[in-house]
Amino acid sequence: MSVRRPCVAGMFYPADPRRLRQEIEACFKHELGPGKLPGKPERPRSITAIVCPHAGYMYSGPVAAHGYLSLSEEEKADTFIVIGPNHTGYGTPVSMMGQGSWETPLGKVDVDSELAQLIFKASDVIDLDETAHIREHSVEVQLPFLQYLYGSDLEIIPICMGFQDLETSREVGRVLATSVKGRSVVIIASTDLNHQEPQESTNRKDGLVLEAIRGMDEEALQDVVHKHRISMCGYGPVSVAIAASKLLGADRAEVLSHHTSGDITGDLDAVVGYASARITRTVQ
User: Per the confidence metrics, is the pTM higher than 0.70?
Assistant: First the structure.
């Protein structure tokens, strides 16, 4: 079985395991983070999907921590489908690693090969392709947070989206929802929001995106991204998360945190927006 080695350890997050754990804990306790460390789960799982950023931890980690704290408060899923945008251009339009494992400084996480085969067989748009993942960071940066919460007791399905249009996103969402029924699964949509504009402009554009997420409307999300030229890199993964969640019975979306890189650095001239959100279904 193949092992996908980390490509941004030592850049986006520490390469040393001890320092990485300290960095993650600092994200949880940061003034822009949730302000506390994860505890034991207290509720049945209602979360079908979360949205998390994927920049360097010093910039987006406190925002991401809100999403992971929310996960930690509920029963653990067996498999996490982590969907990120394709920044590199390598690989097929929608690429899934179907077997093997991913390595981070915190150890290895296995791919749920059984579920990956179900997804592949049910889809005309998702290919089994590892090349898209070799240099792509958007899935990788989510894994240390998951490992911090659960250790090695989890499996993942990594998906990288080059095509992010509405039709493709809805089809991927349909395939995921069909394939995971009866299984304990959470979707993680990895995205940053508007890029490299002043704070005021980014907050305004990000607000349009967050409104569409709250409304659980993948078509509205895609419309505002294109109409307002919002440089959100992972609108496809978020569209997939919304579409799949609705098919899985989700009835609510909540934005947990929104900040920009400028809130960290103090440079408000060219910022990147980050948000965490969760999509949930009512648990009887």
Answer: yes
